[in-house]
Write a structure and sequence with these properties.
It is built from 16 helices and no strands. By secondary structure, the chain is an all-alpha fold. It folds into two domains: 222 residues, no CATH class; 208 residues, Tetracycline Repressor, domain 2 (Orthogonal Bundle). Helix 4 packs antiparallel against helix 7, helix 12 runs antiparallel to helix 13 and helix 12 runs parallel beside helix 14.
Length: 431
C-alpha cells in the first residue's frame, strides 16, 4: 500500500474545485438581489447568510468524523463498517437537522438580535431564514455524504455532489428572482431545493454505485456500543474545536471593525484571499485525511510515514507557491476587489502578513487532516483550545501595535496550532 503522488492529486484536486465552487453561490445570490433596486434585499441576504454560515459551520464535524472513520474501515476492507459510518452519520444528520427546524424561532431571534440590522432588513432576513431552515437535514446529510466519499477515496463523487448543489442553486436563483419576480424568498427557496436535490443525488451515488445500501444492510446493529461512544466523543471534540476556531475569526473581524471602516475594508479584502488560500490547503488536508485513515485502518503503520511525507510535501509546496503568487501579484489582487484609494493603500500596508500566512498556516491545516484521518479528535480539541487562549493573550500584549498586532496574533495562532499538533504527532509516531 504505497502512497503515490497520483493518489494525493486524485483526492486533493477534486476537493479544491469543490471548495472553490462554494463561494459562487453567495456571489450569485448577491447579484440577483442586487438588481432588485432596494438595499434591504442585499442586507437581508448578508444578515441571514451570516447566521446560516455560523449555524452550519458548527455542524461540519459530521463531515470530518465521517471521513476519518470511513477511511479506516476502507483501509481494513470492512464493508459493514463503512456502511455503519454512513448509516450512523445520516441518522445523526436527520436528528440534528430536525432539532434545528424545531429550534428555528429562538435561533433566528438570537441571531438577528446579535446582527442588529435595520428593521426592514431584519424582516426580509426572517423571510429568508423561515424558508431555508427547512434545508437543515439535507445540509447535514450532505456533510456526511461528502465526508464518506472522501474517506473512501471517491473525491470525484464528492465533487459531483457539490457541483450539483451549486449549479442547481444558481439556475433556480436566476429562475425564481429575475424571471418569476420573487425576492429573498426566491433565493431561500433555491437553496432549499438545491440542498434536497443534492442529497438525493448523493444518496443515489452512495447506494447504487458505491454499494452503500448493501453495506448498511450487512452492517448489522447500526450503533454498537463502542462505536456509538467513539462517534459521540469525536463529534463532541470536533464541535468544541470548530466553535473555538470560529471565535478567533469572529474576534478578528470585530477588532478590525473597531479600528475604523478603512482598516475593516482592508482586512475584509485580505480575508477574502485568506479564504481562497484555505480552500486550496483544505484540498490537500482532505487528501491526508483519506490516506492516513486508510493506512491506519489497514494496520500498515510502516506506510504511515510515507503518507505523511508525501502529503506534507504537497501541502508545503502549494503553500509556498501561493505565498510567492501573493508576493508578486498582491497589489493587483487588492485592486481587483476595490477601487477605493484609502482601502487599497491600507491593504498594501498589511499585505506582507498575507504573504506570510500560507507558510505558517499550512502546517495546522495539514496536521488537522492527519489527525482527522487518525481519529485523534481529543488531541485536535486540546490543541485548538490552547491555541485560542494564547491568541487572546498575544492580542492583549500586541494591542498597542494596532492592526499589525491583530495580524501578528493570527499568525502566531496558526504557529501555535502547528507546533502543538506537530509535537503530539511526533509522540504518537514514537509510541
Amino acid at each position: 500500500m504505497q502512497a503515490s503522488h497520483k493518489t494525493v492529486l486524485s483526492i486533493a484536486l477534486p476537493m479544491i474545485l469543490s471548495n472553490i465552487s462554494q463561494p459562487v453561490i453567495g456571489l450569485v445570490d448577491t447579484a440577483v438581489v442586487g438588481h432588485l433596486g432596494q438595499v434591504k434585499y442585499l442586507g437581508a441576504i448578508a444578515v441571514a447568510g451570516a447566521v446560516f454560515a455560523f449555524l452550519f459551520t458548527i455542524f461540519n464535524f459530521l463531515r470530518m468524523s465521517a471521513t476519518g472513520r470511513a477511511a479506516q474501515f476502507f483501509g481494513a476492507g470492512d464493508d459493514p463498517g463503512m456502511g455503519r459510518v454512513l448509516g450512523q452519520g445520516l441518522a445523526l444528520a436527520a436528528v440534528l437537522g430536525m432539532a434545528l427546524i424545531l429550534a428555528q424561532w429562538p435561533i433566528a431571534g438570537a441571531g438577528f438580535r446579535l446582527m442588529a440590522a435595520d428593521p426592514a432588513v431584519t424582516a426580509e432576513a426572517q423571510r429568508y431564514f423561515a424558508i431555508r431552515i427547512w434545508a437543515a437535514p439535507s445540509v447535514l446529510a450532505n456533510f456526511v455524504l461528502v465526508g464518506w466519499f472522501i474517506g473512501l477515496h471517491r473525491a470525484r463523487a464528492a465533487l459531483a455532489l457539490n457541483l450539483m448543489l451549486n449549479i442547481t442553486n444558481i439556475v433556480l436563483d436566476l429562475l425564481f428572482v429575475p424571471v418569476l419576480g420573487m425576492t429573498t424568498d426566491g433565493v431561500a427557496l433555491a437553496s432549499l431545493i438545491a440542498e434536497i436535490l443534492a442529497m438525493c443525488v448523493g444518496l443515489v451515488i452512495a447506494f447504487r454505485f458505491m454499494g452503500g445500501w448493501r453495506m448498511i444492510r450487512d452492517a448489522g446493529r447500526l450503533f454498537p456500543g463502542h462505536e456509538l461512544m467513539l462517534l459521540l466523543r469525536m463529534n463532541r471534540d470536533l464541535l468544541i474545536r470548530t466553535v473555538a476556531l470560529m471565535s478567533v475569526f469572529l474576534f478578528f473581524t470585530a477588532q478590525g471593525a473597531r479600528q475604523g471602516e478603512i482598516l475593516l475594508a482592508a482586512n475584509t479584502i485580505l480575508l477574502q484571499y485568506l479564504a481562497l488560500l484555505a480552500y486550496a490547503l483544505d484540498g490537500f488536508a482532505q487528501a491526508a485525511e483519506a490516506m492516513v485513515g486508510k493506512v491506519i485502518g489497514a494496520g500498515r503503520r510502516d506506510s504511515l510515514r510515507g503518507v505523511l511525507r508525501l502529503t506534507a510535501g504537497w501541502s508545503f509546496w502549494v503553500a509556498a507557491g501561493i505565498a510567492g503568487f501573493i508576493g508578486v501579484f498582491g497589489d493587483a489582487m487588492v485592486r481587483l476587489l476595490t477601487s477605493i484609494p484609502e482601502a487599497r493603500a491600507a491593504a498594501h500596508v498589511y499585505l506582507p502578513w498575507l504573504v506570510l500566512t500560507p507558510l505558517v498556516a499550512v502546517w495546522p491545516f495539514w496536521l488537522d487532516g492527519v489527525f482527522i484521518g487518525a481519529t485523534w479528535s481529543r488531541e485536535m480539541r486540546n490543541s485548538m483550545v490552547m491555541s485560542v487562549l494564547l491568541f487572546f493573550l498575544i492580542w492583549k500584549l500586541a494591542t498597542p501595535l494596532g492592526n499589525h498586532g491583530l495580524w501578528l496574533s493570527m499568525i502566531l495562532f496558526f504557529a501555535v496550532r502547528g507546533v502543538t499538533l506537530g509535537m503530539t504527532l511526533r509522540n504518537k509516531l514514537h509510541d
